[in-house]
Design brief:
By secondary structure, the protein is mostly beta strands. It is built from six helices and 18 strands. The strands form three sheets. Strands 1, 2, 3, 4, 5, 6, 7, 10, 11, 12, 13, 14, 16 and 17 form a 14-stranded mixed beta sheet that branches. Strands 8-9 form a two-stranded antiparallel sheet. A two-stranded antiparallel ribbon has the order 15-18. A hairpin with a 2-residue loop joins strand 4 and strand 5. The protein is globular, with a radius of gyration of 21 Å.
Length: 262
């Protein structure tokens, strides 16, 4: 439902919309993105088109038990400008995971030899990051597993002229306060990273279980880290990283196979 304004000169559009389906995978088939078979799905909001400006307001997306609300605005140009504001929302990890986890294919480096390193060489810098202008505001985005809220995230993320700034960013993870600040400057070559994290009483066992990594770990820890490095991908960034980190853990449990891995 809506109205078309000035259809013969710089047309604009104001409309409200609703869409629903049985599974999120159906929407993925339409967009060409592989999504898990979770549902039902319902999307509602208001769409405004005015020249190069696009705005989705009153956005309300529900997938199974997860619900995300907010607004998205962007300007279509060679240097895209995007602004995302999320109202209080809740996302369940089980609604993001697929029904099965496919076996990981072996990675290979440029010489064709299998790359068995724990940390892959993930690219961190691209022209999109250096050209885009992005602002993301989170207002109590809750991440939950089963009946437990594991994290509540509040803060801002900005990308301007290739400089990514996260923070001040505050989170309450499984009842544990976390404060984080991060600056990733991709306007330099190589890019530089400066990060600070302070966290207390993180239930890392619950987080690993909720994200589908493993259910064979139990325990809590305090974490304080100060880190700086340079690199256009993850591995050289970590190779040049310098700083300090403190981890203090109480009693915990590891399954025997995980202990053998370490």
């Amino acid at each position: 439902q809506g109205a078309l304004r000035k259809p013969r000169a710089r047309p604009g559009l104001e409309a409200s919309f609703t869409a629903h389906g049985r599974e999120l995978a159906t929407l993925g088939a339409l967009t060409g993105i592989e999504l898990p078979a979770r549902g039902p799905v319902q999307i509602a909001g208001q769409l405004t088109l005015a020249g190069p400006n696009v705005k989705l307001s009153g956005l309300d997306v529900t997938v199974a038990r997860s619900r995300v609300r907010g607004a998205i605005a962007w300007q279509k140009s060679d240097a895209p400008r995007v602004r995302i504001q999320l109202a209080p929302s809740r996302v369940y990890f089980e609604d993001l995971r697929g029904d099965s986890t496919p076996a990981a294919a072996p990675r290979a480096d440029r010489s064709g030899i299998d790359d068995a390193r724990v940390i892959p060489d993930i690219p961190l810098v691209g022209e999109g990051l250096r050209q885009a202008s992005i602002e993301v505001t989170l207002d109590h985005l809750e991440l939950a597993d089963a009946k437990t809220v594991l994290a509540s995230l509040t803060g801002q993320l900005r990308v301007v002229d290739g400089r990514l700034t996260v923070g001040p960013f505050r989170s309450d993870v499984a009842g544990a306060p976390i404060e984080a600040r991060l600056v990733f400057d991709a306007s330099r070559d190589p890019a530089t990273l400066d990060a600070e994290i302070d966290a207390r009483s993180i239930d890392y066992g619950a987080l690993l279980r909720a994200t589908g990594v493993t259910d064979g770990v139990q325990g809590q820890l305090d974490l304080r880290a100060r880190l700086a490095g340079a690199g256009n991908s993850l591995r050289p960034l970590l190779q040049t990283a310098a700083g300090s980190s403190e981890m203090v853990g109480g009693e915990g449990r590891l399954r025997g196979k995980l202990l053998e891995l370490w």
